[in-house]
């Protein structure tokens, strides 16, 4: 059975400050490096055949302890980046509510077209879903760890499972260094086995 483990990166200073990161290359904090080192042995026991990572440093650096334990090289894939949040990146939701009140109100109402250079959810689902399928096909019948971001992991999971985007809010976002596990059965297709699994506490639920 083909398995994908979608592993969210460790903590960053912007996570701690509840700032939206998106495509901004915010680095791991000291806590983030510690989280990655603690969780890596758990994932190494799954003997992944491959490790694929977002090309942003907070994901790539999270992948490194696992790479060192398993000997598997980290393959970067920019399609695994977080949703681009355009003008909102670097801001807290409180700041966004002040600077972009109309768009903030639309977001709270569940609308997807927010403007301000923010990537449409359907586009995120498509690109992340493509990256996940490519990773699964490259290691058919084996386990691949995909190191990505909280939002993109959830969008990609919905794309693989064929779940409607309107239900996105019913699944919590991954905590820092937590993961989702998906299996692909030849008859039944993709199935969710586990979600938001991890050893560390205090992970930010914020936009990644």
Automatic annotation (TrEMBL):
Gene Ontology CC annotation, any one: cytoplasm
Report residues binding substrate.
8-15, 58, 82-85
- Name a Pfam family for this protein: His_Phos_1
Residues annotated as the enzyme's active site: 9, 82
* Listed InterPro entries: His_Pase_superF_clade-1, His_PPase_superfam, PGM_Phosphatase
Protein name, UniProt field: Histidine phosphatase family protein
Name any one GO molecular function.
phosphatase activity
User: Which branch of life, at top level?
Assistant: Bacteria
- Which PANTHER family is this protein grouped with? BROAD-SPECIFICITY PHOSPHATASE YOR283W-RELATED (PTHR48100), GLUCOSYL-3-PHOSPHOGLYCERATE PHOSPHATASE (PTHR48100:SF62)
């Amino acid at each position: 059975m083909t398995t994908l483990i979608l592993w969210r990166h460790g903590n960053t200073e912007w996570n701690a400050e509840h700032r939206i990161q998106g495509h901004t290359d915010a680095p791991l904090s000291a806590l983030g490096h510690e989280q990655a080192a603690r969780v890596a042995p758990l994932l190494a026991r799954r003997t992944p055949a491959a490790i694929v990572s977002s090309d942003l440093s907070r994901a790539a650096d999270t992948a490194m302890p696992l790479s060192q334990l398993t000997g598997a090289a980290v393959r970067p894939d920019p399609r695994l980046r977080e949703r681009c949040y355009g003008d909102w990146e670097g801001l807290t939701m409180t700041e966004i509510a002040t600077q972009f009140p109309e768009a903030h109100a639309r977001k709270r109402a569940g609308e997807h077209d927010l403007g301000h250079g923010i990537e449409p959810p359907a586009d995120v689902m498509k690109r992340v879903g493509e990256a996940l399928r490519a990773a699964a096909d490259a290691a058919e019948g084996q386990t691949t760890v995909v190191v990505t971001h909280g939002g993109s992991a959830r969008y990609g999971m919905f794309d693989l499972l064929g779940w409607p985007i309107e239900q996105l809010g019913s699944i919590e976002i991954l905590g820092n260094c937590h993961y989702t596990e998906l299996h692909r059965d030849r008859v039944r297709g993709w199935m969710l086995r586990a979600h938001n699994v991890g050893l560390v506490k205090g992970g930010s639920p914020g936009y990644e």
